[in-house]
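Fold these two proteins, one after the other.
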Amino acid sequence: MTQHTRVLVLGGGPAGSVAATALAQQGIAVQLIESAQFPRYHIGESLTPSCRTILEQIGVAKKLDAHGFVIKHGGAFRWDDDSWVFDWGAQIGSRSWQVDRAEFDLLLANHARDNGVAVTMGVTAKKVVFAGDRPTSVQCDDQDGNSFTVDDFDFLIDATGRNGLLSAQHFKDRHPHVNLRNVAIWGYWRGAKVLPDTPTGGINIISTPEGWFWIIPLSGGRTSVGFVTGKDTFAELRRGHDTLDDIFLSLVKNSPAVRDLVADAEYLGTARVETDYSYVGGRFGGPGYMIVGDAACFLDPLLSSGVHLALYSAFNAAASIASVSRGEVSETEALTYFEFAYRRAYTRLLALVSVMYERYLGKDGFFHTSDRLVDTSGTGERAKSLSFVEIIAGVSDMREAQDASTRVLTERLVDEAFQVQERVSVVDGRPDFSSVLENPLRDAESSEYRLVTTPRLGLKRVFADAER
């Protein structure tokens, strides 16, 4: 670690690797440290088209295509009494992948190395030391238990995932989503089917009275099958079964639709479970640092938003830091843009995910909410489900980051999220508005900058476009 490190990235998952690669491609020296030795298992296999857009920008999409991951063209919902299909190729002209995260994350980390990032595995960041409001050093342990300090950096990116070195451990300002107190349990099958009319390589979302299933086809004939339900319901299930496999297999058996899809398949075991995964940090950045991916926030598996938010935040962080390093914007301006862009994407998904758990609304209610969560002015007559498709594809976030003329009205977006929270978030018998009330979008009219990728990655002032 003798190389001068302008940017230190903590965490080598998708957010950390993408941020590091994008910065290195702008000629910035980057050091990335990761606690694990890759490859390592991680859940989160279904990617959105926005991920492809970003991965194309950093030159790794062709490697993913060649690797053999399942190409994902959309999916099919069977939600309560409604069924509908989304076809990304036909509706938005794009596609993505279903990935094995162990292979995907390793591929991204290796791509970072190939682009000049100094990647070190087996090093755990334990504590960030601040001088005033700015981080100045990071205390680390290597895999042999040796302690040392890294202090040769100008800017820090926290991509430590759910561990949340800054949000959860240093600032202690992470707040759980009380209306998303869910548990996910999942396992793998070989030879499972998907619902009829599912686009090639597509995901299935199938609801039950107690929750919902995901069905994700993977390479090698394997399928990821998972179930999401409330914590109280899962606690009851645990009391009635001896093992996680018993719980999982009983859930599959009790769903006629899912039972049919795995009827001729082989269960590969062993069931896994995650809980307490829906949260948001009180800040996404500050002087000398930005928090990206799961280190900042995570919603729910329902719309496969995890990797989208990770890559979206990482790419915007890299653009912001690159513009600061070139003197194009001040650090304060870049931090304002980053917080605004990331928080806007998170807020929109919070509203849509939350409203989908309001089961009585039906698909028309979901589509109506989606229309209100994007700026459709000047787009002409739109297909009924197009706004919904654009949101779950990450297209709306990418468009608004890059095109100043299509910025959603933030007041409308936040009000919609507030109304959803009012209906579904209850603590001690009262509505809980904390995640919306603390959202800085409520006090911001818009960002003064937009993301640009040509002639180089960075930020550009919106009013500069208007003056041309």
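Now the second one:
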Amino acid sequence: MKNFFNLFYKNLFLTNRLFTGLGSCAALFVLAFFFPWLGVIPQLFFYTLVILVIVDGTMLYRTKKGVFAKRHAPERLSNSDDNELGIYIENWYPFNISIGIIDEIPVQFQKRDIWFKTDLTPRQRKLINYVLRPTKRGEYEFGLIRVYVQTSLGLLRRRYNFSQAETLPVYPSFLQMRKYELMAISNNLTEIGVKKIRRLGHSLEFEQVKNYVQGDDYRTINWKATARQGNLMVNNYTDEKSQHIYCIIEKSRAMKMPFEGLSLLDYAINASLVLSNVALLKEDKAGLITIGEKIGAVVPADRRPTQINKILEVLYKEKTRYLETNMELLYSTVRSVIKQRSLVVFFTNYESMSALQRQLPFLKRIAKFHLLLVVFFENTELKKVSEQPAADVEGIYIKTIAEKFAYDKKLIVKELAKHNIQSILSTPQNLTINTINRYLELKARQKI
């Protein structure tokens, strides 16, 4: 009995409709002092309200389990993407109810407005979908599902607590990876902004002899096959395969800068994951190296079916460091791990020429043995400041400094090109597309 009353009081809530009724009742009693003709109307109103409250409570509590709720969530969440979750709700009451649902989502989202309202008829089932967008990798803990039920009277509300505590890992953007994967399989990468590169020559990998169609290169005509068949026949070539593609991700404090909730490291991780997957679909070998003041993870290049999962698991655990990157250690690691000429994509960030000059000697050494592509970020906030008109003297100073930093970024691109080092200066949101663009371009131009 004691447990019943504790459960009753803990899960019973009074609604605004009941407080409105009590307020109206109090107002009638006050008015009865000044207007005696009201007579017993206040008492009748009060007793009617009491009876309705008893009826409402009886309807809510006469069934031990009136509703059922369960959270539908994926096994893991994708960082920086909209992840769809759902709450399954079922009405076991023999009458219509109105419900409110609170899902205790992880504290990382800092949201207190996950409140859903809906109406259910007897035995009706419903799935309520909602979207969460995580901006940090790691483990996210979900709590209880709390369901508040009220009848058509709406004077009381009963709460049901469904214990569904679970921990979901947030991985690098595998949803984005799958989107590009489908595009790469169907050769439709141009539909999402990836450029189609004109082929300037032919790779050495012969594929087949086929009939000539309008638009084929005349230089590929196979005259012997043409003589035998009596129709124009051309040689068909395919991109070279099994080329090594390595993504090197810097984890120093320069990559901790945030943009739209994500750090630059997370943008680099998402882009490297997609690039590795596209490279594997193109039958190249993908590898990974992470570097801070010491070497983080090293995944040798391979094209086995399990390679992308291995890279995904490694990237899931990576975090930014606060010390300067050890470029000498990176160079020695590249020389010892990467045994043949490869495309090395180095994700980093430079805010000034002096930052580049500290690393340039080691970049030049790596570029002697491999095709080096340095990827760094455009500071979009500084760009906005430089494009806004100055309102006063202080604004002129701020705008001048912002323009100076933006100009330094362009000088960095020229300085790298002077030493035969490829580079990409990209905004964070366009990093993935720009990186895949350059990979496909270098592959089509047979630079690797």
